[in-house]
Specification:
mainly alpha; 18 helices; 2 strands
C-alpha cells in the first residue's frame, strides 16, 4: 500500500530519530498506563506503598508487553509498532472483583481468564458471526458509560472524601474543572506537541493547584522507599479464584480481542502493509495472541491486563515513523520507569480530583468510540432491539445494583457489572434475533 512514511516497519531509524519518535509515543501513553492502577487503588482504598508498586508494575508490564508485540516471539506478537498498556476496559470488573476478594482475587482471575483471548486469536474467524461490530460497539459504549461514574467520584474527591465529608467541596471541583478545561484547551491547539501533551499539561496544572491548596499529602512519602529499586516479584500479593469473577473478566477479554483486531488492522493500514491475505492474518493472530499472553504475564507480575493502544496509530501517522524498532526504545523507557519507585510514588500521591478531571474526558471518549462503532452499522429493527435490551439491562444494574439483592450470590456477583450484563445480553440477543454481520 502507498504511504508517505519516512521509516517503514522494517527500517532502522538513526538513534536520534528513533529516540524522538519514542518520546512522542511515551507522552501519548504514559498517563493512560498509570491511570487504571490509580483508579483501582483508590476504589479499593490501598495505601501509598501498594499504589506506588501497582503503578510501577503497570509501567514495567507495559514495557515487556510492547517489546513482545514489536519483536514477535514465535507465534506471539504482531511484529508492528504496537504499543501495549494497562487497559481501561477492565476497570469496572476489576474493582467489583477487588471489593469481594482483594488483590489476590483480581490477579488470580486476570491470569485464569487471559487464555480466553489467546484461544480467540486462533478461532477468531468462527466467532466473527457471534461477536459482531454491533456487539463490540455496545460493550465499548457500556464500558465508557459505566466508567463515567468512576470519573465523577474522583472529581468530587474520591471515596476518602466521602468518608471525611469533603466530597464535592469547591476545592475538589475547582481542581477537577481546571484539569478538564486545560486538557480541552491544549487539545484544541494547532501545535502538534501541545496537542499530544494536553493530558500531561492538564495534570501538571491540576497537581500544582492541589499542592497550593494543601491537598497533596507529602508526609505519606517514605524516603527509604523512594531511594530503592522496584524489583518485580511474581505473585507478590498471591492469587485467588472464583467462577463469578472469572466470567466477568473473561467477557472483557473476549471484547478486547475484537478491539485488538481493529487496532492491528488500522496499524497495518497506516504502516503500508496489506490488510488481507495470509501475512495479514498472521499479524492479527499474533497481535491478539500477544494481547492475551501479555495480560497473563502482567497478572503474574502484579499488574492489570494489557491491550494495544489505538492512540499510537495516530502518532505513527503524525511522525511518519512506523519502524517496529522504535518500539524497543519505548519498551526500554517503560521498564526503566517501572523500576524506580519515585515515579509510582509521585503519581500515587496525586489527589483524586486531579485524576478525575482528566479521566472524565477519557471515559467520555471511550463511550463516544462505542457510539461511533454502533453508528457505523446499519441500524434496522432487529439491531435496535439488540441495542435496546442490552443498554437497558446493562445500565439498569449499573444504576440500581440493589435490583439483584434477592438473587443467589453467584448470580449477583456475575451480573453486578453493567458491562458483563449488557455484554452477555448483546451476545445472546444477537444470536437469538439473528442479526447478520
Amino acid at each position: 500500500m502507498k504511504t508517505d512514511l519516512i521509516y517503514g516497519v522494517e527500517d532502522r531509524p538513526p538513534f536520534k530519530d528513533a529516540l524522538f519518535a519514542a518520546l512522542q509515543h511515551l507522552l501519548a501513553i504514559f498517563v493512560a498506563i498509570i491511570t487504571p492502577p490509580l483508579i483501582i487503588a483508590g476504589a479499593l482504598k490501598l495505601d501509598v506503598e501498594k499504589t506506588s508498586f501497582l503503578v510501577s508494575m503497570s509501567l514495567f508490564a507495559s514495557g515487556v508487553s510492547t517489546f513482545i508485540q514489536c519483536r514477535r516471539i514465535g507465534p506471539i506478537g504482531a511484529r508492528l509498532l504496537c504499543i501495549q498498556g494497562t487497559s481501561f476496559s477492565f476497570i469496572g470488573p476489576i474493582i467489583a472483583t477487588g471489593l469481594v476478594g482483594g488483590l489476590p482475587l483480581i490477579f488470580g482471575s486476570c491470569i485464569a481468564a487471559a487464555p480466553i483471548e489467546m484461544v480467540v486469536s486462533r478461532t477468531f474467524k468462527y466467532l466473527r458471526n457471534i461477536i459482531t461490530p454491533l456487539v463490540s460497539g455496545i460493550v465499548v459504549l457500556l464500558i465508557g458509560l459505566s466508567l463515567i461514574k468512576v470519573g465523577i467520584v474522583s472529581c468530587g474527591g474520591g471515596y476518602s472524601a466521602m468518608d471525611d465529608g469533603s466530597f464535592g467541596s469547591w476545592e475538589n471541583l475547582s481542581i477537577a474543572a481546571l484539569v478538564l478545561l486545560s486538557v480541552l484547551f491544549f487539545n484544541r491547539c494547532k501545535n502538534k506537541y501541545l496537542r499530544m501533551s494536553s493530558i500531561v499539561f492538564g495534570l501538571c496544572l491540576g497537581y500544582g493547584l492541589a499542592f497550593a491548596l494543601g491537598k497533596v499529602n507529602m508526609s505519606a512519602l517514605n524516603v527509604e522507599m523512594l531511594m530503592s529499586f522496584n524489583i518485580p516479584q511474581p505473585f507478590k500479593y498471591g492469587v485467588d479464584f472464583n467462577i463469578s469473577s472469572f466470567i466477568a473478566i473473561g467477557l472483557v477479554y473476549l471484547i478486547t480481542a475484537i478491539e485488538a483486531t481493529g487496532d492491528v488492522t488500522a496499524n497495518s493500514m497506516i504502516s503500508g502493509l496489506p490488510i488481507e491475505g495470509d501475512s495479514y492474518l498472521k499479524r492479527v493472530s499474533g497481535g491478539v495472541m500477544a494481547d492475551g499472553f501479555n495480560s497473563f504475564l502482567a497478572g503474574v507480575f502484579n499488574s492489570f491486563p494489557n491491550s494495544i493502544f489505538a492512540q499510537n496509530n495516530g502518532i505513527i501517522q503524525l511522525t511518519g515513523v512506523a519502524s517496529r524498532y522504535v518500539g524497543y526504545y519505548i519498551a526500554a523507557m517503560l521498564v526503566l520507569l517501572g523500576l524506580f519507585p519515585i515515579v509510582g510514588a509521585v503519581f500515587s500521591l496525586m489527589p483524586d480530583p486531579v485524576l478525575g478531571g482528566a479521566t472524565l474526558l477519557m471515559f467520555g471518549t471511550v463511550a463516544a468510540a462505542g457510539i461511533r462503532i454502533v453508528s457505523s452499522q446499519e441500524i434496522g429493527r432487529k439491531e435496535t432491539l439488540v441495542l435496546a435490551v442490552s443498554l437497558s439491562l446493562g445500565l439498569g444494574v449499573e444504576l440500581m445494583p440493589d435490583v439483584l439483592k434477592q438473587a443467589p450470590e453467584a448470580i449477583r456477583s456475575i451480573f453486578s457489572s453493567g458491562i458483563t450484563t449488557g455484554g452477555l445480553t448483546a451476545i445472546i440477543a444477537n444470536i437469538v434475533i439473528r442479526v447478520k454481520n
